[in-house]
Specification:
Blueprint: H1 2-14, H2 22-37, H3 41-58, H4 72-96, H5 136-155, H6 163-182, H7 200-220, H8 238-267, H9 276-297, H10 311-326, H11 334-354, H12 370-382, H13 386-389, H14 397-413, H15 432-435, H16 443-454
Helix pairs in contact: 1-2, 2-3, 2-4, 3-4, 4-5, 5-6, 5-7, 6-7, 6-8, 7-8, 7-9, 8-9, 8-10, 9-10, 9-11, 10-11, 11-12, 11-16
Organism: Lithohypha guttulata
GO biological process, one term: DNA-templated transcription
Biased composition (Polar residues): 363-378
């Protein structure tokens, strides 16, 4: 039924006569949300781009002048529609690895007033209406989206960042996110216990908690690639070391909160397939945790890994959440491809952990979906060394073409506006950055080097074109 309704809606919008209107934008926003809930990211982006074009043509990103004669209802609808577009723009940007369409320098539209819908029908001036609406969470989410946009611009620029710049910007963003939390009303402030009731504010509280913890991961995860344990690494001052530890602890705290929240939703039967934001945030947390664990195995963190987190508990929760989330996407979708990549990364973690302790258990009745099982078995037989990957002469002409496609896609897999290094080489895929940090004859280090060459920071980017990777057992053919 929903598919038929969406197809009918698209057909009507394609035949829409006359000039564009605010209703056109609102209808397309509704379609975008439907496409996200049904794992159709590219179609969502296409529809969003059209809605964005109409929005800028109508000027809803700009504040209305005092001389404009528009009633209160339309004025507030313009505000709400624009900030819906703004929030969606931020999420689609990081999910698809593409630049944001809306730039803050072009926007002066204020946030909507917290007025109940029924009161907007009044002929009274807006400033005289009671503030008894339920838009606190929406406005808070819009403010958070602005902070996420700022984090993307500052922490993932085109140019390389020095270690000091990275740590300073990361800590500045953490301060800004803390300030944002202090502005929330008490019933919306993130808390350890996940609310799973039916009341509106409970779901709003959960969404904001997931949103701010996701923003904390975006603000801190680049610090995980700073090798603090290698003797040839650049020396850090005591203050820099304190900043690094804060960033890593905040990142771990955010990961744990997301895993706890997702686990609670799963156990209460409330992690639905249509909850696209919950799934996306959880997958970002899981992939970041796996990289953190691999770094910890390499002693690359500023301190013992056990001092930062309970490895066994976090890894078990991550596997439990991953197993459930992998069962949600339909076959042959981009989200399914993401889970194949995540399963590959998980196998690296399991191999690293098994080398230092007995194999970890798993949640009862949690089975890895068949989606990635075959690929992981193939991977154990087909893993190639970095030396072979970098030497095209070892492949047949057909394989060489596939390798070139893989290398090109791996570069494109990284978001266009993310930095290519932490302050050394010109490209993230230039492994000379890590050549002095890894032991050439170590299987675990070679696997980690291979993972870095693929671009782990884009594991949360679901919409990459993956042609050519099937020869390396990523299972994306």
């Amino acid at each position: 039924m929903s598919m038929a309704c969406s197809e009918r809606a698209k057909a009507l919008l394609d035949k829409e006569p006359g000039p564009a209107s605010l209703a056109s934008i609102q209808a397309r926003i509704g379609l975008c949300l439907y496409f996200l809930s049904t794992f159709r990211l590219n179609e969502c982006r296409y529809t969003y781009s059209f809605a964005f074009t109409i929005a800028t043509a109508l000027g809803i990103h700009r504040r209305l002048s005092s001389s404009t004669k528009i009633n209160v209802l339309e004025t507030e609808c313009r505000k709400r529609s624009f900030w819906c577009l703004y929030i969606l723009d931020g999420y689609l940007s990081v999910m698809l690895g593409r630049p944001r369409l809306i730039r803050d320098d072009d926007v002066d539209q204020p946030f909507p007033e917290n007025v109940a819908d029924i009161d907007l029908m009044s002929s009274e001036p807006i400033h005289t209406l009671p503030r008894h609406g339920n838009l606190e969470a929406f406005v808070a989410h819009a403010r958070l989206a602005k902070l996420m946009a700022r984090a993307n611009d500052q922490l993932y620029p085109l140019y390389a960042l020095s270690s000091d710049q990275l740590l300073q910007r990361s800590n500045d963003m953490l301060d800004a996110l803390s300030d944002w939390e202090t502005t929330l009303p008490e019933f919306l402030k993130p808390r350890a216990r996940t609310m799973t009731g039916q009341r509106t504010f409970e779901r709003q509280n959960t969404i904001l908690k997931l949103g701010v913890t996701h923003a904390r991961i975006l603000a801190t995860r680049r610090c995980l690639l700073m090798d603090f344990g290698h003797p040839n690494a650049n020396p850090f001052s005591q203050s820099s070391d304190a900043r690094a530890k804060r960033s890593i602890r905040e990142c771990i705290s955010a990961i744990i909160m997301i895993l706890d929240t997702t686990t609670c939703l799963i156990e209460h039967g409330q992690c639905y397939g249509s909850f696209w934001s919950t799934q996306y945030v959880a997958l970002v947390a899981i992939s970041t945790l796996y990289v953190l664990l691999i770094q910890g195995m390499r002693h690359a963190l500023p301190g013992d890994m056990e001092s930062f987190l309970n490895v066994d508990d976090c890894f078990e929760k991550a596997k439990y959440c991953q197993n459930h989330l992998a069962s949600l996407p339909p076959p042959r979708t981009q989200a399914e491809r993401h889970h194949v990549l995540l399963a590959h990364l998980r196998s690296k973690v399991e191999k690293s952990l098994s080398s230092r302790r007995k194999p970890l258990g798993s949640y009862e009745n949690s089975q890895m979906p068949s989606l990635g099982t075959t690929h992981l078995q193939d991977q154990s037989q087909n893993t190639m060394s970095i030396a072979n990957l970098n030497n095209n002469s070892n492949f047949s002409p057909a394989q060489s073409d596939g390798l070139q496609n893989m290398q090109a896609d791996a570069a494109a897999f990284t978001r266009p506006f993310e930095p290519n290094s932490i302050g050394g080489p010109d490209t993230m895929n230039d492994m000379s950055m890590f050549s002095t940090m890894l032991t050439p004859n170590s299987n675990s280090d070679t696997n980690f080097q291979y993972m870095l060459d693929f671009g782990w920071e884009s594991l949360d980017t679901i919409g990459a074109n993956m042609r050519g990777h099937e020869m390396y057992s990523f299972g994306l053919s």
